[in-house]
Amino acid sequence: MTARTLPRDTRRPSVSDLLAAAVGAVPGGAERPGQQAMAAAIEQAVQAGEHLLVQAGTGTGKSLAYLVPALLVDGPVVVSTATLALQAQLVDHDLPRLVEAVSPLLGRTPTFAVLKGRHHYLCLARLEASTEEDPADALFDTGPAGATRWLGEAGRLGRQIQRLREWGLQTQTGDRDELDPGVDDQAWRLVSMPARECVGAARCPYGDECFAEASRARAREADIVVTNHSLLAVDMLAGRHILPPHRLLVVDEAHELADRVSSAAQAELTPDLVDRAARRGRGFLAAEDAEALTEAGDALAVGLAEAPPGRLAAGLPDALREALTLLDAACRRALSGIGEVKADDPDPVRRQQAKAVITELSDTAARLLAASDQDVAWIEKEQRRSALVVAPLSVAGLLAANLYAERTVVATSATLALGGRFETIARALGLSGSDVPYRTLDVGSPFDYAKQGILYVAAHLPRPAQSGLADPAAEELVRLVTALGGRTLGLFSSRRAAQRAAEVLRARTDLTILVQGEEALPSLVRRFREERTSCLLGVMSLWQGVDVPGEACQLVVIDRLPFPRPDEPLAAARAAAVDAAGGSGFASVSVPIAAVRLAQGAGRLIRSRTDRGVVAVLDSRLATARGYGPFLRRSLPPFWYTTNPEVVLGALKRLAADQPSPDR
């Protein structure tokens, strides 16, 4: 892989010079402990060709710590993030301020670009054909009164498509995230093009105007390319030809990477997908070939209806195996009938779409029938949707083989050193046990956790024994929330537990109780910030997706240790594989998952140097479990620790009165 070399001043400024300039451009800015060490370590890693794992606690300023040395790397640098929020923070705030601050020192203005998957961009070919699209491609209503609902949905889709047409004439990027207000996924599917269905710029009538191709062109010319873990995973699986060649890859929120790669390598089959493929094939297939696809879809529907949800640990049921065999054969016949997409094809876009969706069905059916020991298969059932899903048992080998070659990888997050060590994350990322050289670094955090926060474990409560919120835990929750008078973020292991907590708090207090799902999440978070006597209760997406610094959030309550549920197919399969090899699946799989989730949840409390508060865990096992309890506590920020409820209630009452806590 050859990286583009940019002309640079031979008297290059140092990382320290650039970091000082960048920090100085922020009003009231100052270098933070660990920031300089992290930036220097990244520069050394690039020079030595070693990979680096960096734990950087909240408040370190890790974005600047990796962006500054990136500007001294010849050729483009790729930064991958897990969340849209961090991607937007980098592109809209950090990078514009940084390039302006360092331009005088570099003698030029560095450039940056965002690169997303092809389906994030408006496709002009699909937009042009949208009036001819069968709305059923986006609507799969099989319930009662389906026709009436279909007409209403089709009318709504029509209005959204018209707005997309108007936007398409104005937008410079075609990026879905710039469309405000947005449209729903059904409408967007009709005007976007997944990579597998694209015929390529050379054969597309709109190739010269393609927004996705333009984004790739901008990325090839930029100094820093910001992308996401999903596209990074696809790039690896596709032979690394999507992202521009580069010497340095920074993986922020690296604790999420293995899961995102697993998702990218996951595939599924549903009757609706088969039905959609049959419709896409119309005009290219003989009637009997289209009918064979439809019959295979019907057989799949029957097989899914007969099977219970969950992991297929004993293999495919006979009905599903027969359905997959029919589907695989029907797909092969259909692909033969469609043929190749040629330069003089009168409708290359539709032919490629038909070929792509049928190829994907065929590959997935064959993969499921092969029943590899390296794959996990399960059935999902949600309302009217049933799916047969397959995913890799582990992606560590895939990452070891494809992530690290011909570039330096810096992986960073606030939660990498689980139990105080990097071994777990190194193993998940394919580093531990391989011959890939790497170093680790923990730069700490500028926050004084022992003075700013308390970790309280309600050790006197009985061990949780049900999926909801037990009465003793509910009583403890009321006491804690009442002592503070609101300002509580409740993180629950299940929707049932969150609903139970809301019922109890609404019945026993006069506080404003906000519950995830009752309003749009951004609206709930805004109200939580603004209303001093409010509590926000929710489930897993709140554990790492909420950032509320200051007095609005001074109590984070976690109802139980977030171990994966026994019915989580991948976690269960991975634990079973470790058990079969003579190890402990619980210790190797379930405990690390809980450690990451718990650390992310507890990390919602202290978001600035002036924040104060309590993380209260209503699961006594964090204090009493001799094996994993200490490991989980070492994975958390170093809060002052207690199991004494009276001490915590007193601290919360002082916070409620805005009185400083006494020295502890």
State the end-to-end distance.
56 Å
Q: Using only CA atoms, what is the Rg?
A: 27 Å
Structural class: alpha/beta
Q: How would a textbook summarize the main sheet? A: 7 strands, parallel
Low-confidence stretches: 1-10, 134-151, 659-664
Spatial order of the strands forming the largest sheet:
3-4-2-5-10-1-11
Count of individual beta strands: 18
Description of the structure:
The longest helix is centred in the first third of the chain and has 23 residues, at 84-106. The chain is 46% helix and 13% strand. With 664 residues, it is of the alpha/beta class. The protein has a seven-stranded parallel β-sheet with strand order 3-4-2-5-10-1-11, with helices on both faces. Strand 8 (375-382) and strand 9 (385-392) form a beta hairpin.
Report a brief summary of the structure.
Mean pLDDT is 89; it is low at 1-10, 134-151 and 659-664. It is built from 26 helices and 18 strands.
Which features would summarize this protein structure in a list?
26 helices, 664 residues, alpha/beta, 46% helix, 7-stranded parallel beta sheet
